[in-house]
Every structure is written in structure tokens, then in C-alpha cells.
Design brief:
alpha+beta, 5 strands
Length: about 130
């Protein structure tokens, strides 16, 4: 059964915020290092999620860093759509829920501070089929 979760930058109700909060009490938008690490060693019985995280930053990411992401981890890629300072991180991870998958993919950014120091997530899409 296909399942998808979509978060945009519209104001969130408390129920939405709760839905997007991972088991470590982190909002998926802020990323969660624990979820990221959990996804690295996830049980292969867990569903595989395709997650897209759009985020903005204040300083452009060097092209080289964008390419390195894919070279180091083939489950992740970092792309720059046409808008300046808007980036798209895509990841394929296994997790028990879409929220954990999204928090884990955004957590990749926290784990890779050499790529981005600070980021603001504007949209997340997570789905599995
Ligand atoms: Zn977490």
C-alpha cells in the first residue's frame, strides 16, 4: 500500500507538528541524527521510503560538495533546482514511519556540517510504495 507524507511551509497545527515529531522528540524539519543513524542500520524488513527535503541556506554550496554527497553515500543526493540558495536533498532510507524517514534524511545535513552550517527546511515529501 502506498503511503505518503507531505509537509509544506504553511503554518502547522499542533496535530501536524505532533505528526512530524520523531520518537526522539525532534521535528522532522530540523532533522534528527538518531533517526539518521537508525536508518543506516535499519532492519531490511522495514519499508523503504523515498524522501525529498527542500531547504534554503544563506551561502551557496560549492558544486564539489554537491557531487561528494552522492559519491560518499549512494542513497543520498543533493541537487540544486533552478532557484538560487534552494537545494533538494533526496534520500532512500528504511524506517518504521515516514516521519522517522524524513527526520533521518534531514538528519543527514546535521551529520554533514561541512556541507551546510545552517539550513531551513521548507518542504518535505516522504513516500513508500
Ligand atoms: Zn529521531
Amino acid at each position: 500500500m502506498a503511503e505518503s507524507l507531505i509537509l509544506t511551509d504553511r503554518p502547522q497545527s499542533p496535530a501536524d507538528a505532533a505528526k512530524w515529531t520523531c520518537p526522539h522528540d525532534r521535528h522532522a524539519q530540523h532533522g534528527c541524527v538518531s533517526c539518521y543513524q537508525a536508518s543506516t542500520y535499519a532492519d531490511s524488513a522495514l519499508p523503504q521510503w523515498n524522501v525529498s527535503v527542500w531547504f534554503t541556506i544563506t551561502k551557496p554550496i560549492p558544486i564539489r560538495a554537491l557531487q561528494d554527497v552522492y559519491r560518499h553515500d549512494r542513497c543520498f543526493s543533493l541537487d540544486q533546482p533552478s532557484t538560487p540558495l534552494v537545494y533538494l536533498l533526496s534520500g532512500r532510507v528504511r524506517a518504521g514511519s515516514g516521519t522517522e524517514a524524513a527526520a533521518g534524511v534531514a538528519g543527514f545535513l546535521l551529520q554533514n556540517r561541512h556541507i551546510v552550517q545552517e539550513f531551513t527546511v521548507t518542504e518535505i515529501r516522504a513516500f513508500h510504495s
